[in-house]
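Pilot study result, target chain (529 residues):
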Amino acid sequence: MEAEEGTRLRKQALSLKPIETKRKNYRDRKENGDFQVGEMNINSVEEEEEPVSPAGRFFHEPKFNVHIISIFGCKTRIFPDVIKANLPCSLLKHPRFSSLLVVDEKNGEMKWVRTEVDLEKHVIVPDIDSKNMMKNLSPDEVLENYIYNLTKTSLDKSKPLWDLHLLNIKTTEAESVGIFRVHHSLGDGTSLMSLLLACTRQTSNPQALPTLPTVKKVTQISNKGSFIRKFSKQFFGFWSILRLFWNTFIDVLFFWASVVFLRDTQTPVRAPPGCFEYTPRRIVFRIVSLDDIKLVKNAMNSTINDVVLGITQAGLSRYLNRRYGENKNNERGSTEIKNNLPKKIRLRSNLIVNIRPSPGIQALADMMEKDTEAKWGNWMGYVLLPFTIGLRDDPLDYIRHAKATVDRKKHSLEALCTFSISGLLYKLFGLKLTSAIFHRVLSSLTMAFSNLVGPLEEISFYGHPVAYLAATSYGQPHELMVSLQSYANKMTIVLAVDENTIPDPHLLCDDIAESLNLVKNVVIEKGLI
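Predicted structure:
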């Protein structure tokens, strides 16, 4: 039966059309071409080379050795042969996934050099049953521990910087699980999500690519009208521009203040100063209803980003209140009811923002074309997003505060400025000092936050129907990272935590999910829908 299913999936998946990409050819020969890849020297001719971008080099600094992990659960057993048969006509068509990171021994210059890819070294099918049968672990715990052990390691630089782990283990949410691990120097989350989606097709229509949410165009207001109307429009337009520059100035000022002296409040989710931050990460996730989030969004006249940020703030407030209560009373119990939170907690997040000219996830074909508007790579800026921590009598206040904060940040060029600052510092002072400055800023924050947009319909990965998507990363200087990933009618809340600081990540994940239920129930009770 499994053989027949594997044959069916292979035929269906092989019908995918290859992705066509443009490849830029560089000099066929390298002058004094003695290069180093880890401990491996390569002396070859007629290789395709491409310099590593400053952002790519940034992620190879010791303090920013960041890896992206994308987890996808499947509704059926995964057939590794089907995956391996289809990767060459899709994923490997992209130069980054078939290139070695090569370092010039003389000047330290990094380049991407095309190479042959041995899929046996990249597609890993572990034998996990025999190792865990005697430990009495549930399948969910086995998966969690497997990912935890992955975060202890870095990708081998003697081969292209990605791997794919296929686990045929039945968990609560899926029949099997795939773990796609990529070094951050290959691209940002938006680029990599688009590339992953290019390897999939709609489950209901195996020949169609997934569709992504589109950004609604703003309707242009006619200039026709009375003098007062024209004057009002010009006045408010001038005031809007003035606010934009003022907000940007304040945000950049806070950025430099974080470089010099400004630090977040020491809380139970923030490690004490001087603690070693590059520890393995425990990655846990919960799947909630995207329809519930949309219900709250429509009732509050907000966006999905506003709602997920609001419930994250609510969940963190509940969790911190409990932790502070346990520290005071040294016992569990009624600490969730009493307000145990200190006043004026400064808790900020590093919000990763895509700064491509067209917002949202771009079509893969556009990203792969180097001369198009949507470019491939790490095109992202950082926004220092303040979180409002506190207990509220009305749960909807969390959404209101989140909306006000996000609206304020939207009317600022902070993301573009931080991206530009990094480029300017790199040109003036080099990579080492630039990475030290940004490390100081990011380590002054409590957490990182990310929200990735997924496909609108259910998809199949080379013929394997996907049950859920969950994306996160490890290697960043934060003890907590909260990521959200939408998929069809689901939203996955993903936490990557340092267990030394946050020993009970499942509880924090439950608090965020429960906060959504509380907000939804209040919306229904008040008749806002």
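One observation from the pilot: The radius of gyration is 24 Å. A full batch analysis is planned for the follow-on phase.
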